[in-house]
Amino acid sequence: MDTTGAQDAMYGRLLALNQEAFSAGLYEIAYHALAGALHRAVYLQDDALLDAVSALATAQLWHIDLHAPTQALSSFVATSRGRRSAYAALAQLATTCARLIRHNRGRRQPWPAGDGRD
Is the pTM above the cut of 0.90? Predict the structure, then answer.
């Protein structure tokens, strides 16, 4: 099985499950499948997949806010409880993880072992 980037089968299955659940109005299940996709993308260290998770979480939250504003994961309900939506938090986490991966990719490699700095 190919386990790199957009070709990763597990990531694809998690997104498919997210879409299936979301289309059926099962927003909590959809959220958890999308969170699983986030964790898979982190495992793969794939910032592009994390950007996709962030965009999808944001789009799904917009849909919920427009079509199901009283649903437990909506911005309205979360704000009325002094919180923010789990979908908004997931989008921000995905964005933060993507930025961290990009940042770490640009950093110098750690000192080689045995050079007197370890």
Answer: no
